[in-house]
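Readers outside the structure-tokenisation community will struggle with the description of the input data as it stands. For illustration, here is how one protein appears when written out as sequence plus structure tokens:
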Amino acid sequence: MKENIKQPEYRIRPSARLISTIGKDLVKDKFAAVVELVKNSFDADSPDAKISFIYNEENQTLTISVADSGHGMDLDTVVNKWLVPATSDKLERKTSAEGRALQGRKGIGRFAAAALGSSIYLNTKAKGHDEVSLLLDLDDFSSNNLLEDIPIVIDQVKSNRKAGTFIEVVSTGISVEDLNSQWDEKQRGNLVIELSTLLAPSEVAKVSKELGYLGSEDSFTVSVEYKGFPDMEDSVVEVKPFGVIDLFDYRIHGTINSDGYATFEYYNQNVKDIKPERYQKNILLEDHNNQDYPGKISFDLRVFDRDPEAIDDLIERGLQDPFSDEKVGKRKARKILDEYYGVSIFRGSFRVRPYGDQNFDWLQLDSNRVQNPSMRIGHNQIIGFVGIQSEELSHLEEKSARDGLVEDRYFSGLKHLILYAISQLEEKRFEFRKRSFRGRKTKSVNDRIEDLFNFDDVTKNLVKKIGKLGIDEKSQQSIFKIVTDEIDKEQKKKSQEYIKVRETIALYQGQATLGKITHIVLHEGRKHIKVINEVPGRLIRWAAQLSKEFDDELQDKLTTRGELLVKSSKAISLLFKRIEPLAITRRPNRKQLCLLREVISSINIFESDLERAGISVHIDIPEDIEVYATSFDLATILANLVENSMYWLGISDSSDKEISVEGSILPDGVELLFSDNGPGFQGSNLELMFEPGFSMKPEGTGLGLALVGEAVERLNGTIRAASSEQGACFVINFNKG
């Protein structure tokens, strides 16, 4: 009979580096780290969270702290909960003592502070208990020691101060340059925007009650203090909700129950005193195998038109700067919309990141808009709030990395429901804009010139007025003939002027394009001119020496330099040939041109710049495709598109940068697709892409794509900007000659 030998038992023993893994390495960014600390203040039933940034230039230290006046913690809570990673405390409690829906349910949020500095100091006090404090030196947790081998010293003292918690994170060796790179004016502004979008607006908080969050309407304020920053005065910023949400053009809001039954209201603020339209619908899921209802949800979706007329209306409704409360102009109005658009998801009173971030189009609104831009809204036109229930009721689980919800069947169902609600708003918005003639394309320069030389409306008005003179029909006909004959004569005279004006403007546009690429001509030209200036003198000198005495080495130098001179001469000649279409003094007539040859010629202007920038070019155009055009206009189109792509690819993080040009024959003409894999249009209004003055570049003039649009129109073609999964895409159609 065998003896039962007891096997040795072992334990999982976490490394000390676990703290960095669940904190600094897991948190999405430094803004998320601050947000996690603010969430803890909210969970503690504090009425506020006070964030402080204090920089000491002499000691080169940056201290970031978050203080609250919540319940605080006693020694037992600190030891058995705060110092226990992934504790299930909040997951089991679900709500705070005062009914707030607990936000930090993973038990690791407090360790996100590791992303803000090298040490964490905790000071806390619960009502009726001693004051408790400890210091975590994060360097200790980067060693190969086990977590259980890192001693934590906790101080406990008697104190009469009020309950609350203070967490301080310190970074040392922070120079002014380091400070500016980590927390410059733009990043400080982004933090305030992040915090202002963190808490649900009052309307969303009210609806959250219906979703089971009893404390959703509690007042909770956040402030940010800055001290010792070299580029600003000491100040305190009170984080306020963004007032722009009340100035919407269109709004749809309501609730959808766990069976898909929706109750919602639609508003149109473009029409004064109009009552909201109320609807009830049963929303069915399209794919039951991959979609399921995510419990009860609320939604409040507000849409802003972004054409010039709508921006004027937005300002007229009282748009103010969110920080200074001053009235704003058109440029600032667009900037405010650019800072706040997006559809956020809230669980209780807090936003689930990254939903609502400007660079996260989780509903793929821009992709959907490509199919019908006049009907669909873009990502940058909407500020929306979606409320969801707890994980138990909604089955919508948050990822441990704080980077969103698990994308399963319930998340797919949530997207379907919200997109359905948006489609209801889009339909009503489209009807209104169609009836009110809104959103019509602004006239191009060519259209405006044509209007100046077109007398058709004048003729019609004169005919109407003559008809009202009360004279007999025969006299009317005589007058009609005299008037129309004179107008026809004048129009024939002006037609030549019309052609000259159009050609002159076209030439100016070509020269504007040439001006934009002057740096290429100068850079490439200087390199070769240097050779042409310096080499001939040496050749003459070496030739004279060889005539007196033959030397193999000198002969090789003479041959090599001579070949270099020829190469530079040809390069200069080729460069001039490439830019020649843009440097003409008279616009040529249209003719059948090989599209492939014209594309290669135009892109080769940028050959050296593309190589230096590490941008590859893929061209897929059959050799037999011809377009009825001019080299001048095609060069204007392609040069500006390449220049535009080079800019955006230049700021892209992609390691594989590419421009792609594809051509194909359609039944009614030729289609050219020009695309790149840069950051894309980023939700910008694609209808405005070719309007003069519209630019997504920080210092852009809005000239390049406007020149492209005008050149395409001169060729009787069409162009549109299309969103894609990655990068920018332009679709150009040339009609048959």
User: Anything to note?
Assistant: Residues 473-516 form the longest helix (44 residues). The mean pLDDT is 77. The chain has five domains: 18-197+218-238, 243-435, 445-515, 522-580, 590-735.
